[in-house]
Design brief:
This protein is of the alpha+beta class. It contains 16 helices and 47 strands. A nine-stranded mixed beta sheet has the order 32-31-29-28-27-39-37-34-33, with helices on one face. A six-stranded antiparallel beta sheet has the order 4-3-6-11-8-9, with helices on one face. Strand 27, helix 6 and strand 28 form a beta-alpha-beta unit. Helix 6 packs parallel to helix 7, helix 8 packs parallel to helix 9 and helix 14 packs parallel to helix 15. The chain is globular.
Length: 759
């Protein structure tokens, strides 16, 4: 079935699929033959080759056990999609031009129609089109072939970034949280578009906002392919009501431009700061040749330096519509390793989860492809800002990006398409050059390198209202270090310390980066999920279990740290609970301590929100199934509008030492005055010390409320529960222990307490 909608004919649905040895299809001119697609595999488009072969039974589910290894042959074949095109009523109704449109493919392709080569494409995550008018009118049933050649060879996570040659993210070549699964296929919608004499593309809505006068206009631009002088009409609507229209004429440079004042402008805000109104924009040719639709939002984003940080190179504080915003960030990775519609379905659930956790910005990591139109539409709707990195990432052995002219010649038109396809989205807040790009000795990349210079130039030309950063972290040092004054933007740590074992409490209490854009801790996936992708023979917790290692235990096993806290744990469920509690405890503390430093620290981005395939253990906070780990709830606690928090160097106390913490609060809801209650109890519920007092929390910066010291009864040894409450509404809970060995072992007898710590 080929669906007709407006002036488009959707080609999604039934296609044929063939595979061939690399290069043979072109060399032997198979494309020139009249092909019988009925003899090919029958598959659905959009979707990946991996998914198609799995659903047909040709390969086993690549996410189960060690099956992804057995599917690696797919990346070493050329894949050819075929479809017979049905004549469309638009041709009979007098359409003069026909365009073949692709929303996105895995990387490269070559196109053939009626046995002849008609064009090619290079680059993942961008739409592209090709006019095919002259190939159609002499054919009753035009035959389309899309050849996807073997992917560009790339290093996996560990390698040399300067060897990068593909225009795609490298995650699929193997990463610490993802298998080697190099996606191949038609991942987005495919359609035919029918127009008259004029063809429209690159519709750009560029809002201009004056916050002082509350006036706004939108500058409108569209590329007009066809004879000069086309009459066009731009229309703007809000909530299905037209708010303005303006006419324009196609100019000699191939564009039509106009501007339109917007009465009573409705501002677009990040989540929790206000609403997310989206203006609908339409441009149409007066003669009916073509039309395009898009949406945009009215918001002003800038990045400011704090007065005490005026000497640093990069402004870090996010300002939206004149208001400084603490960046409640999380790092986002591709929602599904195979990509296509299955990734978009998972993405929608994940973005909703992020919003419910209090996140206001996601960093779309440079190891993946640029995020999809559906991702940006969801972020526009929900008020999540996006820091989009270009698809480049570190290699570990060398993190220096390529700088050769041949690569730049291919990269430039690709980046132009990446930028143009996303610049209308109000959620897009910042462009980044890539992930963890550095010089030698781990010095973060600067604008002295030709690659960020190229990117910056293109962004200034195509999307001049958004800022660009060469990489993340920005430096001047890569890692956080105590008392280091040159910490603009840092990454790490991602693991637990070993002596003493546990999260890095003292480190976080001693560092003061302006921004902490990546850090994390591992936590294990719940047992029910593991049973879905690991057969019984592969569920052993032994380090020798190859499937456990394959599902990222090789990178992220941390059983020795769990044992140091909880002792030898009997039973998978308790071991997983202990792991998840430790991850949640650490990440919550990292968020709370960073927030206590606002506005000196502009924000924090945990690594990582999601995972693209099912891991046994990983730094993700949401499992592949979409079910959150305890870490999700711990971070959500730290990101809530009002927080009451405890600051300490360790949850493990020395014998006979009192409990000493300092109590802090912050409020995004304005000033709060109410009763502060602290209650310390043992596991039996016996009161060890309770305090009550009325406090005032200002509605701007965090405030230190008081230092709390509770002397413990003589000879007391055990786990303690500290409950905090502010104004009877805002609460928090912490666990402490002064047991000399396996300090939290007794807490395992109270699994409900561990699960409920972050509720």
């Amino acid at each position: 079935m080929q669906t007709v909608k407006n002036n488009r004919q959707l080609l999604s649905g039934d296609w044929a699929l063939w595979d061939e040895n690399p290069n043979e299809w072109g060399l032997l001119k198979h494309y020139a033959k009249k092909l019988d697609f009925e003899r090919w595999r029958q598959v659905k488009v959009p979707g990946s080759v991996h998914e198609a072969l799995w659903k047909s039974g040709e390969i086993k589910h690549p996410y189960h056990n060690l099956n992804s290894r057995a599917a690696q042959w797919i990346e070493h074949r050329d894949w050819i999609y075929g479809k017979n095109l049905e004549l469309n009523p638009f041709l009979k109704d007098g359409a003069k031009r026909v365009f073949l449109e692709f929303e996105g493919i895995s990387e490269k392709c070559e196109l053939f129609l009626n046995g002849a080569p008609i064009g090619s494409h290079d680059g993942a995550g961008v739409p592209f089109e090709l006019e095919i008018t002259r190939y159609l009118y002499d054919q009753e049933t035009p035959q389309l072939q899309v050849l996807i050649p073997t992917p560009t060879p790339e290093d996996p996570q560990v390698g040399w970034t300067e060897r990068t040659r593909g225009l795609r993210g490298r995650m699929g070549y193997g990463w610490d949280f993802a298998p080697r699964l190099v996606r191949v296929g038609l991942l987005g919608e495919v359609s035919l578009r029918f127009t008259g004499e004029h063809h429209l593309k690159d519709f750009w809505c560029r809002p201009k906002l004056d916050l002082q006068t509350r006036q706004a206009e939108v500058q409108l631009e569209v590329k007009v392919d066809g004879p000069v002088g086309a009459d066009l009409l731009f229309e703007i609507a809000l909530n299905n009501e037209k708010v303005g229209e303006v006419s324009a004429v196609g100019e000699a440079d191939g564009y039509a431009r106009a501007s339109l004042a917007l009465p009573d402008p409705q501002l677009w805000w990040p989540a929790r700061m206000g609403d997310q109104p989206l203006y609908a924009a339409r441009v149409s040719c007066a003669d009916g040749s073509d039309s395009l639709e898009t949406s945009f939002g009215l918001r002003e984003i800038s990045w400011q330096r704090q007065p005490q940080n005026a000497g640093y190179e990069w402004p870090m504080t996010l300002v939206v519509n004149g208001k400084a915003v603490f960046q409640r960030g999380w790092n986002w990775v591709p929602a599904d390793a195979m990509g296509g519609p299955r990734a978009d379905r998972k993405m929608k659930h994940l973005v909703e989860l992020a919003r419910h956790a209090g996140v206001n910005i996601l960093r779309a990591w440079g190891g993946g492809d640029p995020e999809s139109p559906e991702f940006y539409a969801e972020c526009d709707r929900l008020g999540l800002l996006v820091w989009q990195e270009m698809p480049l990432s570190s290699g570990g052995i060398s993190n220096l990006p390529p700088d050769d002219k041949d690569y730049f010649a291919r990269l430039t038109p690709y980046l132009e398409r990446v930028i143009k396809a996303r610049r209308n989205h109000p959620s897009l807040a910042l462009w980044g050059g890539g992930n963890e790009l550095t010089y030698s000795e781990n010095k973060p990349l600067t604008m002295e390198h030709p690659l960020p210079q190229l990117m910056d130039r293109l962004i200034r030309e195509i999307d001049p209202d958004r800022d660009f950063r060469p990489s993340s972290p920005l430096g001047a040092k890569f890692d956080p270090a105590p008392d280091d004054t040159e910490q603009w933007d840092v990454h790490g740590p991602w693991t637990y310390r070993t002596d003493p074992p546990g999260p890095e409490y003292k480190l976080f209490n001693s560092i003061k980066p302006l921004l902490h854009s990546e850090l994390g801790l591992p936590g294990e996936t719940r047992l029910a999920d593991q049973k879905r992708f690991l057969s019984r023979r592969f569920r052993s917790r032994a380090a020798s279990n190859p499937a456990r290692r394959h599902h990222d235990g090789a990178w992220w096993e941390h059983g020795e740290i769990v044992e140091a806290f909880f002792g030898p744990v009997t039973g998978d469920k308790l071991a997983i609970l202990a792991s998840q509690w430790l991850q949640a405890e650490g990440l919550r503390y990292y968020v709370e301590e960073t927030r206590r430093r606002w506005p000196q620290s502009a924000g924090i981005y945990l690594w990582q929100f999601n995972e693209p395939w099912p891991t046994v253990t990983c730094t993700s906070a949401v499992q592949y199934s979409g079910r959150p780990k305890l870490a999700y709830h711990g971070v959500k606690k730290g990101y809530q509008p009002v927080t009451i928090t405890a600051r300490y160097d360790s949850p493990i106390l020395s014998k006979d030492a009192p409990l000493r913490v300092s109590l802090w609060a912050s409020s995004d809801n304005g000033e709060i005055e109410g009763e502060l209650v602290s209650s310390l109890k043992d596991l039996s519920g016996k009161d060890l010390g309770t305090t009550k007092e009325v406090v005032r929390v200002p509605g701007a910066n965090p405030v230190h409320l008081r230092d709390l010291e509770v002397a413990l009864p003589g000879g007391f040894e055990g786990v303690m529960v500290l409950d905090l409450s502010l104004a009877g509404k805002w609460k928090n809970r912490y666990l402490f222990s002064n047991l000399p060995e396996y300090p939290f072992r007794k807490a395992l007898k109270h699994p409900g307490l561990l699960k409920g710590t972050f509720s």
